[in-house]
Design goal:
InterPro entries: His_synth_HisIE (IPR023019), HisE (IPR008179), PRib-ATP_PPHydrolase-like (IPR021130), PRib_AMP_CycHydrolase_dom (IPR002496), PRib_AMP_CycHydrolase_sf (IPR038019). This is Histidine biosynthesis bifunctional protein HisIE. The chain is of the alpha+beta class and 202 residues long. 43% of the residues lie in helices and 18% in strands. The protein contains six helices and six strands. Strands 2-1-6-5 form a four-stranded mixed sheet, covered by helices on one side. Strands 3-4 form a two-stranded antiparallel sheet. A hairpin with a 4-residue loop joins β3 and β4. α2 crosses α5 and α4 packs antiparallel against α5. The model has no long low-confidence stretch (mean pLDDT 94).
Length: 202
C-alpha cells in the first residue's frame, strides 16, 4: 500500500479506478471512487466504489458475496486515476464472467513474481527461521545439489500415477530452481529471453 495524492477536485470528485487481479495480472473491472470510497476500501480491505447510478458507496460483492480483497492501491502519474490490485472471491462481473471484459481469469502464474520477490528478500534479509535463507547460507553447491535431488525425485514420481505426489515434487523442483537462479544472480526474465529468442528463430 502506498500513499496517494489523488486530485479529486480536478475530476469533479470522482476518479476512475481500474482493478487488476493481484496474482494473474488480468484487468477485472473499472469503476469510480471518491474520497470516501478510497477511505472505506483502505479501512475495510474490500474494494469499494462510488456508484453513480445508486448515488452511494458500493462495496463490490455486497449483494453477490463476490468481494474483492484489497492488496494494493496506487495513483497514476497525473494523480487522477487509481490502479487497484485485488484478490477476487469469485466472478467479478454481474453476468457471472470472471471479468467485466468477458475474459477467463484462471491463470495463477503471476504468483511466480511474488515468490521470486520473497526468495530475493530471504537472500538479502536472512533470518534464522527461513529455509530459503538457510539454503543461501550453505552456498551455491548446496543449492545446485538440491535442484538435482528434486529433479531425480520428480522423475521417479513421473513413473507412477499419483498426481498429488507428482505435483508436490514439481512444486519442490520449481521452487529450488528459482532459488538457484537467485543464488547465481540471474533473473527468470533472462531465461524467458532465451526461450523467446529460440521461438523467433523457428
Amino acid at each position: 500500500m502506498i500513499d496517494m495524492n489523488i486530485d479529486f477536485k480536478k475530476m469533479d470528485g470522482l476518479v476512475p479506478a481500474i482493478v487488476q487481479d493481484a496474482i494473474s495480472g488480468k484487468v477485472l473491472m473499472q469503476g469510480y471512487m471518491n474520497e470516501e470510497a478510497v477511505a472505506k476500501t483502505k479501512e475495510s480491505g474490500m474494494v469499494t466504489f462510488f456508484s453513480r447510478s445508486k448515488n452511494r458507496l458500493w462495496t463490490k460483492g455486497e449483494t453477490s458475496g463476490n468481494f474483492m480483497e484489497l492488496v494494493s492501491m496506487a495513483s497514476d502519474c497525473d494523480d487522477d486515476a487509481i490502479l487497484i490490485k485485488a484478490n477476487p472471491r469469485g466472478p467479478v462481473c454481474h453476468t457471472g464472467s470472471d471479468t467485466c471484459f468477458d475474459e477467463v481469469n484462471s491463470s495463477k502464474t503471476g504468483f511466480i513474481d511474488q515468490l521470486r520477490a520473497i526468495i530475493k528478500d530471504r537472500k538479502n534479509n536472512p533470518t534464522d527461521t527461513s529455509y530459503t535463507a538457510s539454503l543461501f547460507a550453505k552456498g551455491i553447491n548446496k543449492v545446485a545439489q538440491k535442484v538435482g535431488e528434486e529433479a531425480i525425485e520428480i522423475v521417479i514420481e513421473a513413473k507412477d500415477d499419483n498426481k498429488e505426489l507428482f505435483m508436490g515434487e514439481a512444486a519442490d523442483l520449481f521452487y529450488h530452481y528459482l532459488v538457484l537462479l537467485e543464488a547465481k544472480g540471474y533473473e527468470l526474465d533472462e531465461v524467458m529471453d532465451v526461450l523467446i529468442d529460440r521461438h523467433k528463430k523457428k
